[in-house]
């Protein structure tokens, strides 16, 4: 397998620029990676994410050995590798998105306030604060993600997973949206949350109707139909 991962590097660049344009990545704060087999393409440390280039994406193996790229990988490399070694996912996005940070300052978890959060695994945990780039943070984030696709990092940011980078990015957007709704609702009163029973009822409807998947239009055989 080639170590250059050219397509994955280009995909990461596009994702970083889109997330930065949406205000979810600022300056050099945040990192993105994609796994291909036993290889990981990841943003380099110190890269300005709004203008990142493919030369600022480094390829490593699952032990962190650099295989391709002229720049050192992100200081959060062990966070990414710990997740890849533990879970079956294809991409990871770590942001310092403002509303995700805000919820992590005031909550121990982001409760389920809307059924659209269910793809994230239900309520999103808030990982206690550890300095960035440390083994303690990497282990705490990894352990919080069992059965989850997202975690908030207290006084820090957010991490989302996906089978693909597109899915991980969508989870980042979804998480920030849910944090926004919670903060706005809290400004007016006490938000209602969905119970486990209500969440299970929504999951049943999603499964039964194949919700969210495009379907062909059903045209009836009424008189005059073409």
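^ structure tokens above, recovered residues below v
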């Amino acid at each position: 397998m080639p170590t250059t991962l050219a397509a994955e590097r280009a995909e990461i660049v596009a994702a970083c620029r889109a997330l930065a344009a949406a205000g979810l990545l600022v300056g050099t704060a945040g990192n993105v990676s994609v796994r291909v087999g036993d290889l990981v393409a990841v943003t380099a440390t110190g890269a300005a994410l709004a203008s990142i280039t493919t030369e600022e994406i480094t390829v490593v193996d699952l032990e962190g050995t650099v295989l391709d790229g002229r720049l050192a990988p992100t200081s959060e490399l062990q966070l990414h590798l710990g997740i890849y070694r533990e879970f079956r996912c294809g991409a990871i996005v770590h942001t310092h998105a403002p509303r995700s940070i805000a919820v992590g300052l005031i909550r121990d978890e982001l409760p389920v306030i809307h059924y659209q959060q269910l793809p994230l695994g239900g309520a999103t945990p808030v990982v206690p604060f550890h300095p960035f780039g440390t083994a303690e943070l990497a282990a705490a984030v990894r352990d919080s993600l069992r059965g989850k696709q997202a975690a908030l990092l207290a006084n820090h940011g957010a991490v989302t997973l996906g089978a693909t980078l597109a899915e991980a990015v969508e989870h980042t957007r979804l998480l920030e949206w849910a944090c926004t709704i919670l903060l706005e609702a809290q400004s007016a009163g006490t938000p209602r949350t969905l119970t486990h029973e209500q969440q299970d009822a929504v999951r049943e409807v999603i499964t039964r109707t194949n919700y969210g998947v495009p379907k062909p239009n059903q045209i009836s055989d009424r008189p005059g139909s073409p």
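The helical segments are 6-21, 77-86, 98-106, 135-144, 165-186, 196-209.
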